[in-house]
Amino acid sequence: MEQVFIGLGSNLAQPSAQLRQAITALGTLPNSAVTGTSSFYTSDSLLPGQPRYTNAVVALATALAPLALLDALQAIEADQGRERGVRWGPRTLDLDIVLFGEHVIDIPRLKVPHYHLHARPFVLYPLAELVPSDFVLADGRALSELLAACPFQGLERMAAGPADA
Ligand code: ROI
What we know:
The chain has four helices and eight strands; from the N terminus they run βαβββαβββααβ. By secondary structure, it is α+β, with helices and mostly antiparallel strands. The chain has a single domain, classed as 2-Layer Sandwich (Alpha-Beta Plaits). The strands form two sheets. Strands 1, 2, 3, 4, 5 and 8 form a six-stranded antiparallel β-sheet that branches. A two-stranded antiparallel ribbon has the order 6-7. A hairpin with a 2-residue loop joins β6 and β7. 7,8-dihydro-7,7-dimethyl-6-hydroxypterin is lined by residues 9, 43, 45-47, 53, 55, 88, 94, 122.
């Protein structure tokens, strides 16, 4: 089993409900179990002119290989109405493999640790809820260093039992 962290994001069609539905779907993946779910956070889009995003991180123990997991995540995205086309466009559901155990993966379809992790407080802070404070990424970077360089500013942690705005 590998310990995998998946970043979830949505800014369309009741984002919190999209995330909850996705977490349920992750729980049904073969040879896998959801072992942790962060709080939900809202923040402005990194690109102007889009609705605010809701983001979270899920810990998944899985025996699936990285590309099999990626296929499964894209199937869940498609299932929840994700329309591919506009790169960086608004989306009902985005599922990213943030970390995959101790693996460093750099192929066109998949880069792990996630390429933009260091610049995304909406991934770093929820991830920090799920790991020890001395956590080190597979590529040797300490999570504490990434957090220190990426201010929490602009993130809003939702109260438990989030209602959709
Ligand atoms: N902005 C936020 N806050 N959350 C996201 O998940 C997110 N995803 C994106 C872009 C458009 C870069 N901005 C985002 O793809």
